[in-house]
Amino acid sequence: MDERRALLVDAFADEPLAGNAAGVMPDAAGLSAGQMQAVARELNASETAFLRPSETADRRVRYFTPTQEVDLCGHATIASHALLAAEGLADGTYTLETNAGMLDIELDGETVWMTQNPPEIREVDPGYETVADALGVRESALTGLRDDLPLVRASTGLPFLMMPVEYLSDLSKMDPDTGAVETLAADHDCTGVYVFTFDTLASESTLHARMFAPGAGVPEDPVTGTASGACGAYLDRFGALDPTPPEMVFEQGHFLDRDGRVYVEASDATARGEVRVGGTATITLDGELRVPETDDDGIIQA
Fold first, then answer.
1. Does a cis peptide bond (omega within 30 degrees of 0) precede residue 150?
2. Which of 90, 116, 95 is nearest to 105 (CA)?
3. Tens-place pLDDT, residues 277-289
4. What distance in Å separates the CA atoms of residue 107 and residue 16, rounded to the nearest whole number?
5. Domain 120-279, what fold?
6. Whole-model pTM above 0.90?
């Protein structure tokens, strides 16, 4: 039976058992989609990154949640490249082939930076009552900032609904209806719903966030790199901070006891067509995993 090295790496964290745990298989060459899905289900991280050779980039990656393949994952990208850096990959810029397109990854000491796709932002109107019911929060928590920050679908590789709320207390009390959140996201062709407030725990933080993606098999994600990049572009588009700081810090994961920080560079994101997210990561589990065989049609053999 095929044995491959598999790890759990905590991204957007400086210590183990914090931030967002990503599965990483540093050598996934030759594995079928069925095998990768089985491995992701076994590791049971919100996403697992499978690194493979590429003909057009320094490396290829595919991402799987426990239930499906996704085109892009920020925290698994940070985690996998932090692993490569820890094992000798030199500081510098590297190209990464993903299902969402080609990305630039910069290693800078302990920090990994990921350049995301050009922002795509459009306003949507799901109705504040509908959103409040889905998130399990009072409607007035969502309407306090609507004059400055409309509800939008924002993407820098993966699309998310952006939902600003006024107070951290409202964010903490949310009790989402997973079926309703899944429907809300699907109705707007989004991966999930990213909810945030400028009411933060740390004085140096820009915002505090939660992200719900039950349709992708992730009821709540501890710390979300792709959504953070999309949110940074959204804040820049609507002049929420006027001017957008050169570097922002987003808090997330505290309500899951997985505290994490995402660094976001989105100043003039629309003009530059570029957003970067960055973070550190730490290895928490390292071992060998026995991969089940698969036949030609991709069905796992028992």
1. no
2. 95
3. 999 999 999 999 9
4. 20
5. Diaminopimelate Epimerase; Chain A, domain 1 (3.10.310)
6. yes
